[in-house]
């Protein structure tokens, strides 16, 4: 199974996928890693790992539609079976997703449909929930929406801050993402509707 991974930031979840592939624990080929802006640590990590990388800079295009089409062309050039949004903080179009047969995977650090968006951990903490978690799902063109594949919950500790909670969530999120990729590669995950 060939995957293209899209990142916007540090790419620590991507690193876990790279490590699992290298350790022979996950039988997927990371065809390329792409970002929506220059200078991300996610791209730097991938370069260091000898993986092909690309940037389709959101700010270099006059319209979102042109950026979206350019990103789709670039991703398609690697012929992925699955595209993974791993901390990719941009919404792509329905046309983008359709081009990859709907096989656009996303992870989110909250129990969707609760607390979608760029600040899922902060929003959950601000609400005062006692349980939160993470979600791996087939993404559609909404903000963190689409059919859920896997979720896991964890209890929020008293007086926990956003960073510590996010780090605890990411530990689970990495395991869940790798497990879903493994099941996908084995043909055990239903295709998106
Ligand atoms: C992850 O927790 C991911 O779920 C979240 O960004 C983080 C990226 O971390 N994505 C979203 O919030 C999407 N709405 P990383 O760059 O260290 O892998």
UniProtKB/TrEMBL annotation:
A single Gene Ontology CC term: cytosol
Record: residues binding N(1)-(5-phospho-beta-D-ribosyl)glycinamide: 11-13
Entry-linked HAMAP family: PurN
Signal peptide positions (record): none
UniProt enzyme class: transferase
GO terms of biological process kind: 'de novo' IMP biosynthetic process
EC code: 2.1.2.2
Function: Catalyzes the transfer of a formyl group from 10-formyltetrahydrofolate to 5-phospho-ribosyl-glycinamide (GAR), producing 5-phospho-ribosyl-N-formylglycinamide (FGAR) and tetrahydrofolate.
Catalyzed reactions per annotation: N(1)-(5-phospho-beta-D-ribosyl)glycinamide + (6R)-10-formyltetrahydrofolate = N(2)-formyl-N(1)-(5-phospho-beta-D-ribosyl)glycinamide + (6S)-5,6,7,8-tetrahydrofolate + H(+)
Membership in a protein family: Belongs to the GART family.
Protein name: Phosphoribosylglycinamide formyltransferase
GO molecular function, one term: phosphoribosylglycinamide formyltransferase activity
Site (Raises pKa of active site His): 144
Domain spans labelled Formyl transferase N-terminal: 1-181
Protein keywords: Purine biosynthesis, Transferase
Active-site annotation: 108 (proton donor)
Pathway in which this enzyme or protein is active: Purine metabolism; IMP biosynthesis via de novo pathway; N(2)-formyl-N(1)-(5-phospho-D-ribosyl)glycinamide from N(1)-(5-phospho-D-ribosyl)glycinamide (10-formyl THF route): step 1/1
Record-listed (6R)-10-formyltetrahydrofolate binding positions: 64, 89-92, 106
Keyword Ligase carried by entry: no
CDD domains linked: FMT_core_GART
Record-linked Gene3D superfamilies: Formyl transferase, N-terminal domain (3.40.50.170)
């Amino acid at each position: 199974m060939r995957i293209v991974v899209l990142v916007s930031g540090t790419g620590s979840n991507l690193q876990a996928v790279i490590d699992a592939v290298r350790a022979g624990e996950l039988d997927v080929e990371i065809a390329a890693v792409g970002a929506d802006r220059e200078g991300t640590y996610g791209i730097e990590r991938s370069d260091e790992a000898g993986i092909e990388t690309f940037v389709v800079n959101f700010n270099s295009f006059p319209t979102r539609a042109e950026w979206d089409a350019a990103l789709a062309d670039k991703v398609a050039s690697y012929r992925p079976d699955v595209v993974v949004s791993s901390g990719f903080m941009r919404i792509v179009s329905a046309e983008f997703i359709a081009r990859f047969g709907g096989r656009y995977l996303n992870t989110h650090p909250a129990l969707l449909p609760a607390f979608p968006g760029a600040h899922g951990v902060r929003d959950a903490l601000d609400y005062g929930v006692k349980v939160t978690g993470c979600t791996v799902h087939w993404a559609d063109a909404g903000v963190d929406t689409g059919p859920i594949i896997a979720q896991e919950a964890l209890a929020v500790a008293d007086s926990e801050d956003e960073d510590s909670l996010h780090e605890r969530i990411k530990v689970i999120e990495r395991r869940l993402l790798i497990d879903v990729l493994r099941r996908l590669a084995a043909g055990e995950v239903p295709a998106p509707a």
